[in-house]
Specification:
heterodimer; A: 525 residues; five-stranded mixed beta sheet; B: 328 residues; mainly alpha; 77% helix
Chain lengths: 525, 328
């Protein structure tokens, strides 16, 4: 068992650890929690409370009709080597990303024209075009120290083996291929924090290994998916073993490729949606960990953004197979002799649902959908693929149907933009970050352009309302169930984890940078 | 003796040629396939990289658009400097570093359990052949063949659950405890040993039957030959007859099999490693395939190829020592 104050975490699954703490590293190759733990961002959006929490930044201001953003940085912060942190570090970090585009994974320089420190506590971001949502991205940027990184020749290939950060945990006290440890920052700026002495990361190669360790009480906090968690985990030590699976705010979707017939037909997509038994999916595939999707696809903490019920004019997320069949017939499709619908060429309609192999919950959901479709007379099958191949097909649009997530952010806006804005549509064969199903509405484009230039909350809410109406009208993708996040923990040795009773933050370690709230607030018992 | 040197030298040349061909194929195959590591890496950035960066990446991965022959010599040069390129999935870690972290543990786990299984299986096989059609023989043969047909990962899961989880006799994962310092000290060696027992046992358990059967069958056919009868008639004692005359000849086909198995241990213990979270390199290969990590794939293939060649060379030498007929 671990010593007092040492928290064991299961977050990344791997066979052996590779020493890389570069928070700007392309891909996701840096060890968790480099991005938010060793290094820190300027502001953190708390998605449970929908509020912006000042971190390395203390205040921000939009100027010149949202063309200029000024961020005031915190004065009393020190790097873990004792050097004071200042706005020059922020200036340096962003300009490093400009110089090495490979580090600009978040695409800041698509809308920025310059980042300059005005004095030691103010940074001025000048935008090349007005883009208010950029604040969320800019403020989440992990800041690296100028006095260390200015001597790094190639930051793209830099593995940052001995990181100097501002975060609560910065000291690598042990690093072997099967376990590594991260101790607290002696100079952390939040007085008296963190309360945890040390984080320990054993390498778990599989979900099963991590689950066994959780049951044995060897892991204190994890983001693993555990089937039948009440029976398998909680019942082993009901006083301490706990979990909280809050909804992230969005939904998991069934995407139909709208460049193909008959998926380009709005009514056909709605009919497919009406054939799906979401109650059964949440019960059988998701162990009742989540709820069937809402008509607006909004869930959890974002529910306050939902349209009022009297404005929701349609319901195509209920399980109504009869109406589904009628709807398909009403748009001119007929069944053949074997009882299956045919397209206009006389070929049977066939839906192939692509899912990542091993993602058992989604695969079960896919199998239920396939069965539901068969019931109304549409042929389909589930095709499991390796993640790389699956994601490639999705991005290049070379798929028939797929189950996947949607964009997320501080509001439901990014989800709708990702689902319906035509500016993200790429030709088939070219990879696209969002809008894999390639669906675009001109009106959404104009809403997006208004959204990008307004910093006023009322306007934003109105835009999100209109987007919901358009979503319901056009069914760009089919929401299946609210997207849950996994947070499993034991209160045997630590207290003050967020929970349903004390929802101060998202619990899942997978939610960066929000995991910083937990790292700074959990205490040893 | 002179003949033996020539024999070894010829085998060595042959393996050099095979190794050279493997290197060449390793160079050609990824270049013949659609897409290249740099483009895959490029795609991961989802259009956020400028085209100039693609060239820089290609350089990084050792892919240039120069003539194939120039690229080839460049590649050979890098190989001899021990430079296998940079892994994509572990970017920016060099392939050599990624592979070497797990290589020793795989060699240790799979290598020693192969040797134990081979030695134990062969000895039991010799005894069974000598005492064939007796009680032990008629019991062990079906039992071990039956056990050998078990999928080893299933046994591994069963052992892990019962002896590791329920009874708590053995650790659940890893190659050594996180509380000991790696080095030549008692607590570390004891920890490595206790972590070694379950995974090694699964590997030995399922392969034992195979070695034993092949040894027994070889032995039986040798025991029926004239020269054994002759030796028996002269009055050699049992031990000499069994080991010096019969087993030495019966061992030859088994040694060849052992050489093959030795070469494949680098890829063979994959599932055992996954189940026990053993820090070997088996999982790397799977991951490299999944992530289309060509440089890593190439690196692993090369280590496997060379370990097969090397172990075959060793087997040739061992056969030379065992079988005087080769020397003639």
């Amino acid at each position: 068992m671990a010593e007092k104050g040492v928290m064991t975490i299961s977050k990344e699954q791997t066979q052996s650890w590779v020493r890389n703490f570069n928070p700007l590293a392309p891909g996701a190759n840096a060890r968790w929690p480099s991005v938010a733990g060793i290094y820190e961002p300027l502001f953190i959006t708390n998605s449970i409370k929908s509020e912006v929490v000042p971190w390395l930044g203390v205040d921000y201001q939009w100027k010149e009709q949202n063309r200029v953003l000024v961020i005031e940085t915190r004065e009393d912060v020190k790097w873990s080597d004792g050097t004071p942190f200042s706005s020059y570090d922020v200036e340096f970090t962003f300009n490093l990303k400009k110089k090495f585009p490979a580090l600009d994974g978040t695409g800041n320089w698509k809308y920025l024209s310059s980042v300059t420190a005005i004095d030691s506590s103010h940074v001025e971001f000048i935008f090349s075009r007005i883009y208010v949502p950029g604040f969320e991205v800019l403020s989440g940027q992990p800041i690296v120290p100028k006095h260390i990184w200015s001597d790094v020749d190639d930051p793209v290939k830099f593995t940052d083996p001995n990181p100097i950060g501002t975060g609560p945990f910065t000291e690598i006290t042990l690093f072997t291929n099967q376990v590594w440890e991260l101790s607290k920052n002696p100079n952390y700026w939040q007085e008296g924090k963190p309360k945890i002495e040390k984080l320990r990361f054993p390498a778990f190669l599989s979900n099963e290994q991590a689950t066994l360790a959780l049951i044995k009480g060897e892991v204190d906090w994890s983001g693993n998916f555990i089937p039948a968690i009440d029976r398998i985990f909680v019942s082993k030590d009901p006083a301490h073993n706990s979990y909280w699976f809050p909804k992230s705010g969005g939904s998991i979707f069934l995407y139909l490729n709208t460049t193909k017939t008959p998926f380009d037909n709005i009514d056909f997509r709605k009919a497919v949606s009406m054939a799906i038994d979401r109650e059964l999916i949440t019960k059988v595939a998701m162990y009742d960990y989540t709820d069937p999707a809402h008509q607006t696809a909004i869930s959890g903490a974002f529910s306050k953004y939902r349209l009022q019920d009297n404005l929701i004019l349609e319901n195509w997320v209920g399980y109504t197979p009869k109406e589904s069949i009628e709807k398909i017939q009403s748009i001119g499709f007929n069944k053949n002799d074997s009882g299956y619908f045919e397209d206009s060429n006389g070929d049977e309609i066939f839906i192939t649902i692509g899912i990542v192999s091993g993602w058992a919950d989604w695969i079960r959901a896919g199998q239920i959908i396939s069965k539901n479709l068969d019931d109304i007379g549409i042929r389909s099958r589930v095709k499991t693929q390796d993640f790389g191949a699956w994601f490639n097909d999705l991005q290049t649009g070379e798929f028939s149907a797929a189950i996947s997530w949607a964009e997320s952010g501080a509001t439901p806006y990014p989800m709708y933009e990702g689902l319906m804005a035509s500016k993200n549509i790429k030709p088939i064969g070219e990879p696209s970050g969002t809008n894999w199903h390639r669906f675009g509405l001109d009106e959404v484009d104009s809403l997006v352009s208004i959204f990008e230039i307004s910093s006023d909350e009322k306007t934003k809410e109105m835009l999100v309302d209109r987007m919901q109406e358009l979503f319901i009208e056009s069914a760009p993708a089919i929401p299946l169930f609210a997207d849950p996040t996994w947070g499993v923990y034991s209160t045997k040795r630590f207290k003050n984890f967020p929970s349903e009773e004390n929802p101060y933050a998202q619990i899942s370690p997978n939610k960066t940078p929000e995991n910083l709230f937990i790292l700074t607030q959990v205490e040893p018992k | 003796m002179n003949k033996s040197v020539i024999y070894i030298f010829r085998r060595f040349l042959f393996y050099c040629l095979a190794g050279f061909m493997a290197i060449t194929l390793n160079f050609l195959i990824p270049r013949l396939m659609p897409g290249d590591p740099a483009s895959i890496m490029f795609a991961q950035f989802k259009g956020k990289l400028k085209p100039e960066a693609l060239d820089a990446l290609k350089e990084t991965f050792g892919f240039s658009d120069g003539p194939l022959l120039t690229q080839y010599f460049e590649y050979i040069k890098h190989l001899f400097q021990g430079d296998f390129g940079i892994s994509i999935s572990y970017f920016p870690q060099p392939v050599l570093e990624v592979i070497s972290s797990g290589l020793y543990w795989t060699l240790f786990l799979a290598g020693t359990s192969l040797i134990i299984s081979f030695v134990l299986g062969s000895i039991v096989g010799i005894y069974l052949a000598w005492n064939r059609d007796q009680k032990l023989d008629s019991f062990l043969i079906p039992t071990l063949s039956f056990l050998g047909a078990f999928p080893y990962f299933w046994i591994a899961m069963l052992l892990l659950y019962y002896f590791g989880f329920i009874l708590d006799w053995f650790p659940l994962r890893h190659a050594y405890s996180q509380h000991v310092t790696p080095g030549f000290n008692f607590s570390f060696i004891a920890s490595v040993f206790s972590h070694y027992i379950l995974p090694a046992f699964t590997l030995i358990f399922v392969s034992l039957g195979g070695w034993m059967l092949s040894m027994r069958n070889n032995m039986i056919s040798i025991l029926g030959t004239e020269y054994i009868n002759y030796a028996k008639a002269i009055g050699y004692n049992r031990k000499i007859l069994m080991f010096k005359f019969a087993a030495r000849n019966a061992l030859l086909p088994s040694i060849t099999g052992f050489g093959m198995a030795l070469g494949f241990i680098l890829s063979g213990a994959l599932l055992t490693e996954i189940i026990f979270s053993y820090p070997g390199q088996g999982y790397l290969l799977l991951q490299a395939v999944r992530a289309q990590d060509f440089p890593l794939l190439q690196g692993i293939f090369l280590t496997i190829t060379f370990s097969v060649l090397l172990s075959n060379l060793i087997v040739d030498i061992v056969l030379l020592l065992l079988d005087p007929r080769i020397r003639k």
